[in-house]
């Protein structure tokens, strides 16, 4: 490898975190994420697990110490667990953390193997604990399967963070009960503002729920203490008094978080996106095929100069999404 120096972008931010969307496919169709009839990539366009692992190695060599497997639904791919095992072998030896974001529909089957691979924490999307509302938001989802997946992960010793997208008129009345439930279960909870990524069948403005108001309402019901815990990520955290639960707020629309951004995102086609909300990207699979790891390293280095300072998300009635690709392409 040409250089072992850390990856520093043009704005002085050190890149330590890689998110990999291992597939754009999903068994659910969450309304804020996807259109009901999504066009997914033909399978031959997906990188092989070997290619994904090779690209991951190039990032680890440049100081990336955290990798998250995401999607689409990462567990839709038959070789995701094997990939996790492979990347997991780098834990303590280049990688500090390997983690996953999943909708948990297939987690019951795989939780044990993921834990054995070294995954210690997992993010599970759960926008409602009411079976009908869950089905409505996901269009196809079976809440019981997701809860089974969560239980299996807990039994395997994996710490759980629930991701809940706050949706006006859909699940806003469930936010406080979700926080109480997470407190009882020992789960963390991240609340997320819906982001304008990709065309869906609805106008996101109708469902956009600004988190500052949500937080104010939660503060009047729960004892929440500002937590100094800070990742280089977008969330701000509070501790739910008397529990181990940490509440995170991910508010890209109402509180820009880009100053400390430490991450880049790899699609299942091998495109490295430098910002969730911008189009700047480079083709790392092409570099890998043309020149192997040295060419990938050079491409990553060159990409650092192109990482945008910030997203420019905006939610307004009738406004086009900030970028045409859905969150499932770059992994949430
Ligand atoms: N399928 C997995 C899941 O749902 O956990 C992983 C991929 S999903 C794209 C990752 C996260 O992004 C989920 O927590 C989901 O709720 C969130 N998400 C998807 N589309 C979003 C959007 N437009 N705005 C905000 N969050 C979104
Ligand atoms: Fe699938 Fe996750 Fe998007 Fe829901 S949020 S449709 S589970 S990729």
TrEMBL record:
Q: Which PROSITE patterns match?
A: MOAA_NIFB_PQQE (PS01305), RADICAL_SAM (PS51918)
Broadest EC class assigned to this enzyme = lyase
Name the UniProt key words of this record, in alphabetical order: 4Fe-4S, GTP-binding, Iron, Iron-sulfur, Lyase, Metal-binding, Molybdenum cofactor biosynthesis, Nucleotide-binding, S-adenosyl-L-methionine
Give one Pfam family, short name only.
Radical_SAM
Cofactor(s) the protein requires to work:
[4Fe-4S] cluster
A GO MF label: cyclic pyranopterin monophosphate synthase activity
Cofactor binding note from Swiss-Prot or TrEMBL: Binds 2 [4Fe-4S] clusters. Binds 1 [4Fe-4S] cluster coordinated with 3 cysteines and an exchangeable S-adenosyl-L-methionine and 1 [4Fe-4S] cluster coordinated with 3 cysteines and the GTP-derived substrate.
Binding positions for S-adenosyl-L-methionine per the UniProt entry: 32, 72, 125, 195
Q: What is its EC number?
A: 4.1.99.22
Note the Gene3D superfamilies from the entry: Aldolase class I (3.20.20.70)
- Residues given in the record as [4Fe-4S] cluster 1 binding sites: 26, 30, 33
Outline the extent of the Radical SAM core domain.
10-227
Binding-site list for GTP: 19, 68, 101, 161, 263-265
What's a BP term from Gene Ontology annotated to this protein? Mo-molybdopterin cofactor biosynthetic process
* Reaction catalysed by this enzyme: GTP + AH2 + S-adenosyl-L-methionine = (8S)-3',8-cyclo-7,8-dihydroguanosine 5'-triphosphate + 5'-deoxyadenosine + L-methionine + A + H(+)
Task: Cite the binding residues for [4Fe-4S] cluster 2.
Answer: 258, 261, 275
Which family is it part of? Belongs to the radical SAM superfamily. MoaA family.
List the HAMAP family: MoaA_B (MF_01225_B)
The protein's assembly and partners:
Monomer and homodimer.
Q: What does this protein do?
A: Catalyzes the cyclization of GTP to (8S)-3',8-cyclo-7,8-dihydroguanosine 5'-triphosphate.
Name of the protein in its database record: GTP 3',8-cyclase
- Organism the protein comes from: Sphingomonas desiccabilis
């Amino acid at each position: 490898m040409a250089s072992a120096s850390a990856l520093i972008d043009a704005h002085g931010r050190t890149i330590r975190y890689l998110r990999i969307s291992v597939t754009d496919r999903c068994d659910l169709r969450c309304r804020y994420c996807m259109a009901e009839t999504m066009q997914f990539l033909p399978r031959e366009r997906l990188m092989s697990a070997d290619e994904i692992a090779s690209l991951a190695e190039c990032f680890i060599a440049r100081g990336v110490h955290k990798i998250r497997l995401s999607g689409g639904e990462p567990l839709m791919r038959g070789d995701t667990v094997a990939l996790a095992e492979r990347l997991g072998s780098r834990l303590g030896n280049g990688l500090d953390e390997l983690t996953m974001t999943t909708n948990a529909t297939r987690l019951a089957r795989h939780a044990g193997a993921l834990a054995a691979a070294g995954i210690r924490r997992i993010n599970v999307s759960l926008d409602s604990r009411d079976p009908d509302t869950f089905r409505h938001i996901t269009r196809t989802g079976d809440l019981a399967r997701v809860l089974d997946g969560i239980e299996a992960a807990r039994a395997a010793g994996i710490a759980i963070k629930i991701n809940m997208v706050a949706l006006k008129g859909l699940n806003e009345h469930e936010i406080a009960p979700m926080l109480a439930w997470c407190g009882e279960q020992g789960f963390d909870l991240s609340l997320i503002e819906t982001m304008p990524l990709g065309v869906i069948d609805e106008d996101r403005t109708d469902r956009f729920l600004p988190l500052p108001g949500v937080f104010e309402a939660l503060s009047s019901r729960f004892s929440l203490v500002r937590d100094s815990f800070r990742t280089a990520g977008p969330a701000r955290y509070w501790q739910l008094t008397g529990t181990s639960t940490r509440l995170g707020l991910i508010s890209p629309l109402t509180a820009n978080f880009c100053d400390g951004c430490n991450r880049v995102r790899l699609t299942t086609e091998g495109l490295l996106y430098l910002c969730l909300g911008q189009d700047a990207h480079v083709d790392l699979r092409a570099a890998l095929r043309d020149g192997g790891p040295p060419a990938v390293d050079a491409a990553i280095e060159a990409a650092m100069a192109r990482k945008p300072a910030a997203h420019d998300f905006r939610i307004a009635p009738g406004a086009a999404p900030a970028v045409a690709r859905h969150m499932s392409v770059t992994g949430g």
